[in-house]
Amino acid sequence: MNGRKILLVVGGGIAAYKVPELVRAWTKAGAEVRCVLTEAASSFVSPLVLQSLTQAPVRQSLFDPGEEGQIGHIEVADWAELVVVAPATADLLARMAQGMANDLATTVLLATRAPVLVVPAMNVNMWDHAATQANLETLRERGVLVEGPDSGELACGWEGQGRMSDPEAIAARTSLLLGTRSMHGNRMVVTAGGTREPIDAVRSVTNRSSGKMGYAIAAEAARRGAEVVLISGPTGLATPAGVRRVDVETALEMRTSVLAEFDAARIIVMSAAVADFRPANASDRKIKKEDLADGEGLQLEMVRNPDILAEISARRDQRVVVGFAAESHDVLPAARRKLARKGCDLLVANDISRSDAGFETDENAVILLTPDGDTEELPLLPKTEVASRILDRVEKLCGARE
Ligand SMILES: Cc1cc2nc3c(=O)[nH]c(=O)nc-3n(C[C@H](O)[C@H](O)[C@H](O)COP(=O)(O)O)c2cc1C
């Protein structure tokens, strides 16, 4: 964590007494730490202690003429590589979920583009309350990461979930999140999930892609410091930390979004399962079954969707383009033909006939193919690990183009 910049936002909970220990773990690992305290937090932990441990001024007020001479709240929000909120009180979580900016802590949290990790700590009933859980869900959907809370004896006398994670566990998680910075300065577009092609006002043609592989790639690239735009078909997945997500439904919308991001991108990873065909004449009203007799057929004319991967591969210049192939038989020859047809730099081939890998699973077994004939077959691995192997290859390809 040498030289890595962590901004710690401290909320007003009893667990704030563990915060000096957390700061100490980070500074010992070489990280630079700055602290922002809510007004309530300074009743639970001494700003002077944190100031001494971080050797930097501790900030508490949005309206401090000394600090705000240089718009200090934006400066500190931009400075951070990672923002950790610990302890994250029920109140702070609620204000974050609402997008409030009514003190220094929430203003900085709204202004930062860095990944945010919240470490909740509170009474078990406050934690279980529907309002707190809904706020957390909102934050998760926005890509905020959550650490803990643990279960056990609580400071308030209750037993249950609500204890702040131990400082060592938080330090380990932040070290993992900060990761390497090997992709810093690269803008990457990742497409993920399946597209949904409307038949009528309520029905659509889609596929079984869960989006997990693309989301894992986006998360890993952000962890390596890339600026990531994730263009996603409908999925139930949370936006990875530090990733900007653009939601689309149809293949045509996906093409428009990819082309809008194309110029600024250095790397494009097309992991989405884009529908090859769409209904030619989607009805904006529901097709009624009463219009047909029992057993009567319904004709659905399909037309081909544009081939986004081939289109961007042809225009790629110095960009690195990665394509995906989902094959159900003769995987290798089919993937090799697809690579030749599409003209991308790396093709990731999935064998979707396996029940333990591919669509909807957490693991994947893929073959990586390059135009020079190189083939690497990876064993069955978690999708996070597959993402890491793919990005190792992408980094090499980027290096070769410099
Ligand atoms: C002794 C004491 C302990 C508290 N402990 C917690 C706690 O662990 N978690 C929490 O969410 N709120 C706790 N609170 C309530 C918060 O301090 C209160 O909601 C406050 O407004 C939080 O402000 P902040 O979110 O701006 O830091 C505690 C309050 C008191 C008086």
What order do the helices and strands come in, and which of them pair?
Layout: E1 5-10, H1 19-28, E2 32-37, H2 47-54, H3 65-68, H4 72-79, E3 82-88, H5 90-98, H6 104-111, E4 116-120, H7 124-128, H8 130-141, E5 145-146, E6 150-153, E7 159-163, H9 167-178, E8 187-192, E9 197-198, E10 204-205, H10 212-223, E11 227-232, E12 243-247, H11 251-262, E13 267-270, E14 277-279, E15 302-304, H12 308-314, E16 320-327, H13 331-342, E17 346-351, E18 363-364, E19 366-369, E20 375-377, E21 381-382, H14 383-400
Parallel strand pairs: 1-2, 1-3, 3-4, 4-5, 8-11, 8-13, 11-12, 13-16, 16-17
Antiparallel strand pairs: 6-7, 9-10, 14-15, 17-19, 18-21, 19-20
Bound molecules: flavin mononucleotide.
Task: Provide structural commentary.
The protein has 14 helices and 21 strands. Helix 5 (90-98) packs across helix 8. It has 2 domains: 5-178, Flavin prenyltransferase-like (Rossmann fold); 187-400, Rossmann fold, CATH 3.40.50. With 402 residues, it is of the alpha/beta class. It has an 8-stranded mixed sheet, sandwiched between helices. The chain has a 5-stranded parallel sheet with strand order 2-1-3-4-5, with helices on both faces. The protein has a two-stranded antiparallel ribbon with strand order 6-7. The protein is globular, with a radius of gyration of 24 Å. The model has no long low-confidence stretch (mean pLDDT 93). It has helices at residues 19-28, 47-54, 65-68, 72-79, 90-98, 104-111, 124-128, 130-141, 167-178, 212-223, 251-262, 308-314, 331-342, 383-400; strands spanning 5-10, 32-37, 82-88, 116-120, 145-146, 150-153, 159-163, 187-192, 197-198, 204-205, 227-232, 243-247, 267-270, 277-279, 302-304, 320-327, 346-351, 363-364, 366-369, 375-377, 381-382. The longest helix has 18 residues, at 383-400. Residues 11-15, 38, 40-41, 89-92, 121-122, 126 line the site of flavin mononucleotide (FMN). Flavin mononucleotide (FMN) binds next to helix 5.
